[in-house]
Amino acid sequence: MQTWKKIQKPLLSLLAYLIVAVVVAYLLFERHPTALAQGTIAPIDSTFIRLNGASASVKRLLKKPLLINFFATWCPPCHKEMPILSKLAKAYQGQVSFLGLAADHNVDGVIAWQEKFILNFELGLADDGMQTRWQANILPTTYLLDPRGKILWSHTGAVTEEQLENALKTALN
What we know:
Layout: H1 2-31, E1 47-50, E2 55-57, E3 66-71, H2 76-91, E4 97-102, H3 107-116, E5 122-125, H4 128-133, E6 141-145, E7 151-156, H5 161-172
Parallel strand pairs: 3-4, 4-5
Antiparallel strand pairs: 1-2, 1-5, 3-6, 6-7
């Protein structure tokens, strides 16, 4: 009985913390949708900053299907999927454009990231307003758009090679 009394208070405290964490997580996800809906038109008038400092429009990149990946250099799942994105950007070069938009505001850090992962697609910086408009509240968030800006596919969290390749094949058919 003495042992139960010793662990009862810490156990109840832990349970209370877990309940609070679950409630907070629920409220965050409820208030911030995790991705734009498939079949809707994306906010393609959004602009981002290229790594050379120039401003660019998403709309101008829509000559063919466009894959947009919102990421951050400090994000472990983003690290996991970058080699996949690089591999598929090379495999689908000429058929699909790829754009990586960093939530980071440090150009040098993003350039180092590009060199680390030997990325062969364009990277830029997304401001907070762009992340909000694209509902990229959880990183990574990936969208595949048709040339008119319609969302063909979206994914929140790290994407697998199989998931992404299936989406790309579907977009091209």
